[in-house]
Write a structure and sequence with these properties.
mainly alpha, 6 strands, elongated
């Protein structure tokens, strides 16, 4: 099949090089965006009278017909077409004849593909934003039913202080909110039209770039034609935002994996989100969070690939940029599927073991800071109180007991300000309740944040 550029050459491409050069195997994903781009371009050529109104209408009708054929499964782009753009052009020429050859007036595949990928990515960012919101709602619903469920809080993977489980879950909602905000910022830079920049220098054809931008829903146009065809920052930004979002999903996954171990036993997996072993009949494996944790590496890899792709590439368009699509396509598929899987897991795949969680905060020294704060409340300097409690911890460890096992007289040996009310302050529920600083785990603060998120997420 003759190439669009074939008259310049005496000999055909080597068959392997032809296949190596082609992008139709993956850029056919952009077919609807390419059709929309071409329809807007044809309308503009008619509006500016570069084409007659009848020619523009004929082209637009032909493209609309191709779109219907594709949606009905009657048109399937494939080799030997080099890419989706030329494939559609060939189809159009076959459908309406010579007029179809006028579609490409005033544009290049360089600005055409740049427009297509932005249209596609803009739509996918909107879908991802919905998926993130759905996951936030799942966490919020789980948090609302666990305000007074306590869970050990950790620093350095060592028991630190008891927390409201709802407070722990709200932390994920905050992370996901930052993800949403990042994607919105990326979308604003995706939503700029390169169409009309042509190959790199603009065109002498009388075009109206603002018209095509408005037709395609872009907020504005690139002001520099060289930048328009060579900019792939938006691809890198998108994958970077996706990598951060995946890091949050991986963090959540790791905690769930730990929680459902026999060693922690903070939660268990339901049959909806777990698999068994082919050898060991007792096993229930956390495949969903493990897969999400593993897939995070794919997105990190795509980010590195895109950064390397643009490093040292001179202005303007280079064939290297053909390598932007597969990382973007796979990143969208990966983050979307992981968001959906995590939402199902939070909604239907995990059940907390309330008794084990309660027992866990009753049998450690995570209330040590509160013991120091008790003395601070009696006007003892914090650093002095800190040292006193350190001595008490050492005393208890040597005797293999906890604070709650001490008598008040034993407390008084370490400091005279201790009294019977210390035992009330050391109860885990009161420990959590007392941490009522703004943003803290105190129940009043947690309920306040739950109400705030309920309003934000419109649940």
């Amino acid at each position: 099949m003759a190439k669009v550029w074939s008259k310049r050459f005496d000999n055909a491409l080597d068959p392997f090089i032809e296949k190596f050069n082609a992008s139709i195997g993956f850029d056919r994903k952009l077919i609807l965006e390419d059709l929309d781009c071409s329809i807007a371009h044809a309308k503009m050529l008619g509006k500016t009278q570069v084409l007659s109104s009848s020619e523009a209408s004929e082209i637009v009708n032909g493209l609309e017909s191709i779109k219907v054929d594709y949606l009905e499964g009657k048109f399937s782009p494939s080799p030997p077409s080099e890419d989706i753009h030329y494939c559609i052009e060939e189809k159009l020429i076959g459908l309406i004849g010579e007029t179809g050859k006028k579609l490409h007036t005033g544009r290049s595949r360089n600005d055409q593909v740049g427009t297509d990928i932005r249209l596609w990515l803009r739509k996918e960012i909107d879908n991802i934003e919905i998926l993130i919101t759905d996951l936030q709602k799942s966490f919020l619903n789980l948090a609302k039913s666990n305000i007074y469920t306590l869970i050990p809080g950790y620093t350095h993977m060592q028991r630190a202080q008891p927390l409201s489980l709802a407070h722990h879950l709200l932390a994920y909602i905050e992370m996901l909110q930052r993800d949403r905000e990042r994607f919105k910022e990326v979308r604003s830079r995706v939503n700029i039209s390169p169409l009309g920049a042509a190959a790199l220098a603009g065109t002498k054809i009388k075009i109206d770039r603002h018209f095509t931008a408005a037709e395609l829903g872009f907020e504005k146009i690139y002001k520099n034609s060289i930048d328009a065809v060579s900019d792939r920052d938006f691809c890198i930004e998108f994958v970077s935002a996706s990598a951060l979002s995946m890091s949050h999903l991986s963090k959540i996954s790791e905690e769930i994996i730990l929680w459902v171990t026999d060693e922690f036993s903070f939660a268990k997996l339901t049959d909806k989100c777990a698999t068994g072993s082919s050898l060991m009949p007792q096993k229930k494996n956390p495949d969903v969070p493990e897969l999400i944790r593993g897939k995070t590496g794919r997105v990190y890899g795509h980010l590195q690939a895109l950064l390397t792709m643009v490093k040292g590439v001179p202005l303007s368009y280079n064939k290297d940029f053909q390598e932007d699509k597969e990382p973007i396509f796979d990143t969208v598929e990966t983050i979307s599927s992981c968001m959906k899987a995590m939402t199902i897991l939070i909604n239907d795949g995990i059940e907390f073991n309330i008794k084990n969680l309660s027992d866990s905060v009753e049998n450690d020294f995570s209330n040590a800071t509160d013991l120091a704060d008790y003395l601070v409340g009696k006007d003892v300097p914090f650093r002095t109180a800190y040292q006193v409690v350190g001595e008490i911890v050492k005393y208890c460890l040597e005797r293999e007991i906890l604070f709650k096992n001490l008598k008040v007289d034993e407390f008084k040996k370490f400091h005279p300000e201790f009294d019977e009310d210390v035992f009330s302050d050391l109860k885990p529920l009161n420990v959590v309740k007392s941490r009522n600083s703004e943003g803290g785990t105190g129940f009043v603060q947690v309920e306040k944040e739950l109400n705030n998120w309920q309003k934000k997420l419109l649940i």
